[in-house]
Write a structure and sequence with these properties.
With 397 residues, the protein is α/β, with parallel strands linked by helices. The chain folds into two domains: 4-47 and 303-396, Alpha-Beta Complex (Aspartate Aminotransferase, domain 1), CATH 3.90.1150.10; 69-296, Aspartate Aminotransferase, domain 2, CATH 3.40.640.10. Helices cover 41% and strands 12% of the residues. The chain has helices spanning 4-7, 15-30, 49-61, 64-68, 77-91, 105-116, 135-142, 161-167, 190-207, 268-281, 289-296, 306-321, 344-351, 378-396, and strands at residues 36-37, 100-103, 125-129, 146-150, 172-178, 212-216, 239-244, 257-260, 334-335, 356-357, 359-360, 370-373. It has a seven-stranded mixed beta sheet, sandwiched between helices. A three-stranded antiparallel beta sheet has the order 9-12-11. Helix 5 packs parallel to helix 11, helix 6 crosses helix 7 and helix 12 (306-321) packs parallel to helix 14. The longest helix is centred in the C-terminal third of the chain and has 19 residues, at 378-396.
């Protein structure tokens, strides 16, 4: 007999994936140019030229045994050093390779961190804020702990500190933040992060144990004019930074990322080994060597991210002009407007009549909203504005 847990969930697919499949089927019927698929956050710009160039150089010039062999569990030392050096240059830190743990993308980074700071089957909990990436719930459940979600501040998508302070208790092991945020595009200000740090420092003293910030940062490089992303680890010592090269370098299929922590972080001397143990629980030991080497030789490089700024400017203005309410995204390639009826699922179903494929906010813990992934060609974003206008008019009628 197969696992009861997984067997009963065979039809519990991701809403985003279901919409993506719907979009492909619809495109086969009427042509992809006529379907405005804003469902999935798949980068729409090419990787920087150095990615292919470096990969070819490695495959053609490096020792094949090293390229295709088992790497160390923590990651290739010189790659980790290259990442540490780049972080030090950008953020004034003092990382070494001992502060970097390579992972299979940001998903594995966050999962390893959740497991590293908590114990399976206890009352331990992680706190996060709506709207949040739905997989956070999966990561917490697989670690045998609770994920407590703070209700969204739908006016700005910032932290509700009153609710957070009430939620933090002796079972709290970490606060999981995501800035720039998927799905809202919101960016936490330095003032917000400093306030969060002071609150957690006070709570650590009160409870006599550490409370970590797990900072999920795959969109760190995609920041729009007028916004700035503070480096959380430079403000709060017990921060575990989870990063992925998927978005900024447009290589999501390569699944490459890392966890970074400073020497100021509690238990920094054993944290690398603890993270390795958590990764082992996920049934992998070591990240594929080729793309470790690629990112190690390409640190600091990004795709041309300016298209996301252009798309955001076009879409945000167009939505506001059409009568939608939307917090201005400060980064990522997402917008998260309010739906034009309370039931966001029904709203997104109606949007299909206009060939708009949108994701209801319910799965992000924020009903009454919908996510637009505007990582699309600029001309398609421009053409979509008429569809959004007609959708809005259908409600006014």
């Amino acid at each position: 007999m197969l696992s009861e847990k997984y067997s009963k969930n065979v039809n519990a697919r991701s809403v985003i994936r279901d919409l993506f499949e719907y979009s492909k089927a619809r495109a086969a019927e009427i042509g992809a140019e006529n379907v405005f698929d804003f469902s999935i956050g798949n980068p729409s710009v090419q990787p920087p030229e150095c990615v292919t160039k470096v990969a070819m150089e490695i495959l053609g010039g490096e020792d094949p045994v090293a390229v295709h062999g088992y790497p160390s569990a923590e990651g290739i030392p010189w790659v980790r050093k290259a990442i540490a050096d780049e972080l030090n240059k950008r953020f004034g830190e003092s990382y070494t390779e001992k502060n970097i743990f390579m992972t299979i993308g940001a998903a594995a980074a966050v999962t390893c961190c959740v497991r590293a700071v908590s114990d399976f089957g206890t009352n331990d909990k992680i706190i996060t804020f709506a709207p949040y990436f739905p997989e956070y719930m999966v990561y917490a459940k697989s670690a045998g702990i609770r994920l407590e979600v703070i209700e969204a501040d739908i006016e700005q998508f910032q932290i509700n500190f009153d609710a957070l302070e009430k939620a933090i208790d002796r079972d709290t092991r970490a606060i999981l933040i995501n800035s720039p945020n998927n799905p809202s595009g919101a960016v936490y200000s330095e003032e917000t992060i400093r306030k969060l740090g002071k609150l957690l420092e006070a709570k650590q003293k009160e409870f006599g144990r550490s409370i970590y910030i797990i900072s999920d940062e795959p969109y760190r490089e995609i920041v729009f004019r007028g916004f700035k992303v503070p480096y959380v680890a430079g403000i709060y010592a017990n921060t575990l930074v989870c990063y992925s090269y998927s978005k900024a370098m447009s290589i999501p299929g390569e699944r490459i990322g890392y966890v970074a922590f400073t020497d100021r972080c509690e238990d920094a001397d054993i944290l690398l080994k603890v993270l390795a143990g958590a990764a082992r629980d996920l049934a992998y030991v070591g990240v594929p060597a080729l793309y470790q080497m690629v990112v190690g030789k390409s640190v600091g490089q990004t795709s041309d991210l300016s298209i996301y700024q252009e798309n955001k400017d076009i879409l945000y203005k167009g939505l506001i002009d059409a009568g939608y309410t939307c917090v201005e995204p400060g980064g990522t390639f997402y917008a998260f407007p309010r739906s034009l009826e309370p039931d966001a699922v029904a709203f997104c179903e109606r949007a299909k009549q206009f060939e708009l494929v949108l994701v209801p906010g319910n799965g992000f813990g924020c009903p009454g909203h919908f996510r637009i992934a505007f990582c699309q060609p600029k001309e398609k974003v421009e053409r979509s504005l008429e569809k959004f206008r007609l959708l809005a008019e259908s409600y006014r009628k």
